[in-house]
Amino acid sequence: MEQFIDFVQNWGYWAVFLGSLIEGESVILTASAMASLGYLSIYKVMAVAFFGTLIADQTLYMLGRYYGDAFLNRFPRFKEPADRAFSLLHRWDSWFILSNRFIYGIRTISPFIIGAGGVSPRRFIPLNFIAAIVWTVVSCVGGYLLTGAILSNFHLIQKYFLFAIITVVALVSGFMYWRKRK
After folding, report:
1. Would you list the DSSP string of the chain?
2. How many other CB atoms are found less than 10 A from the CB of residue 21?
3. CA-to-CA distance for 164 and 158, rounded, in angstroms?
4. pTM of the prediction?
């Protein structure tokens, strides 16, 4: 266990940075939980996550802006997710830019599509900055507070978890018995 804690303390912020470059909510939530336990600083986790997601989305936006059409024409398997993202972009415009980090399945390709869709940097950069702040606060503070709530109520979770397992086993067994008889 000490080796894991040493690893987290030595490499945790690098993991947060790399995780925030891609769809790294699980890395961010884990790092926030480790901050709640006192192994990392929540403020450093938030700063690293913010800059990681901002850098990733700005880079993908610029790649989409300059190479988007050629890339989508060359790789048709990305056409369907790109068409979904274009549809959302044209329908919701600014709201799409602000919320794309929270949409599963198109989060990584969205900045690329926004760039390929012709959204100007003057419009994208401020909205992306706001979206990065919101995503960072929601992800990091959510993981931090959730860990605190779980740990402070762990005795209740243990008590009801056993009850839930017994209930599920009983229901599944009853259903299987009923189905077999029928």
Report:
1. -HHHHHHHHHHHHHHHHHHHHSS-HHHHHHHHHHHHTTSS-HHHHHHHHHHHHHHHHHHHHHHHHHHHHHHHHH-GGGHHHHHHHHHHHHHHTHHHHHHGGGSTTTTTTHHHHHHHTT--HHHHHHHHHHHHHHHHHHHHHHHHHHHHHHHHTHHHHHHHHHHHHHHHHHHHHHHHHHHHH-
2. 17
3. 10
4. 0.74
Query: Do 22 and 107 touch, CB atoms closer than 8 A?
Result: no
Place of tokens 């056993």: 162
Look up residue 134 and give its amino acid: V
- Nearest alpha carbon to residue 12 among 24, 151, 108: 24
Q: What is the mean pLDDT of each run of 10 residues along the chain (182 residues)?
A: 71 83 81 86 92 92 90 82 78 84 79 87 93 91 82 66 78 83 76
